[in-house]
Write a structure and sequence with these properties.
The protein has 506 residues and is an alpha/beta fold. It contains 19 helices and eight strands. It has a domain of 222 residues: 3-Layer(aba) Sandwich (Rossmann fold). The chain is globular, with a radius of gyration of 23 Å. 50% of the residues are buried.
Length: 506
Amino acid sequence: MNSSSLKVLLQWPISILAFVIFFSTTSTCVSATQPHLQRLSVRGRTFLREPETFSESVSEEFQTFYYNQTLDHFNYRPESYSTFQQRYVVNFKYWGGANASAPIFAYLGAEGDLDDDLPTIGFLTDNAHQFKALLVYIEHRYYGKSIPFGSREEALKNASIRGYFNSAQAIADYAEVLIHVKKKFFAENSPVIVVGASYGGMLASWFRLKYPHVALGALASSAPILYFEDITPQNGYYSIVTKDFREASESCYKTIRESWSEIDRVASEPNGLSILSTKFRTCDQLNNSDELKDYLDTIYCTAAQYNDPPMYPVTMACGGIDGAPEGSDILSRIFAGVVAFRGNRSCYHTKTNYFSIETIEGWAWQRCSEMVMPIGRGDNDTMFPPAPFNLTTFIRDCTSFYGVSPRPHWVTTYYGGHNIELILRRFASNIIFSNGLRDPYSSGGVLKNISDSVLGIFTVNGSHCLDILPTKSTDPEWLVTQRKAEVEIIESWIAQYYADLHAITK
């Protein structure tokens, strides 16, 4: 596969799971031929600010353990019984203890190192005292320190070994770890609430469906479980990005929409790429116009997906575009938006990767095997150039690179998704699907109540996974209300569990 195809393969608009063209090293949203996929993770905010870190006093509250995890939960071949060390982290500070059957809140790791999530996921620590909960954080196989076969190079070296790297194996891992934790700490009667964000939110909802005997309930934040096959329109992700910018400023939206053709026009002129490199103050000379367009796409998609208060990055970017000096040409206005969003810098790295190599490599494989999210754009249906998702091309490129064909229908076969309102009404229980409607991935989320206990909670102004971030004094009232509603629902689940436990054991 050539470098261009590899670039496409490493791109993904998903939060977002949305990125259906594999994933890019810049985690952008759009390319000349197919849309890039934005990362699904809560951690994309590092594009906007420095990642949060633990203070020494807080980090001491977390104890690291390793579980001797089964490599293959679903076969009985000799190699299936191989094991690897899976990391999980426990915070005992708030736990009411096994004698009180105090609950366990379990965070299900996603596509990255667990160390990155510990200071980021505030919902657990913010509510642990109220629930007297034991906090457990479990790392996803093939990420962080939970690598089979001794190293990432060995674990990803061929299709046979990579085959153990999938969501079904991951949630089976979580089941084994949680059963082990309950036995280890004599907490067999402690109810478990699983929590996940983005892809991890998908895992949390699927875990509750597949392992109801392990988890009493699930909080699935910004989980686009419906962005598969034809359940959600291809352009759902980009339509919301467009809507976010248009609601912020009509003139900003129009400027962005008109800029793509202007970039191509300038690039086609003699020394056009040098002109663009100078105008956008790129650290390296542009090799083609797609590099610049991909960079801008990354900015717009990131701003929309993580459009958090009080900064509101979409407003920041549009403020720069609309606030450019009077008489500025269209590309000067676009560059003013870059400066407003990224800050005034000596130069701008258009190829900078804001995610770890292990996340890029790992998620690229997951997208090319089972997480086939058909995110694309048509003609004139967003503020971006057309870039329809082409499944045939996607399968061809993935097969060429990995030697294994994607299974685009497996997620809906194994977990469901079609007619979800009908199917889950009687079958499922105790799942909260939380979303913010400014998050482009909300287009593939569950946005309404399916039953009395499978609930869709959303905020009009919310962004990706905002509800499970640490609370802040600046949080708007609508966000405080959303979190309060989630806590009250979980309280009701646990109260009912205790009533049932008492009735059965008395």
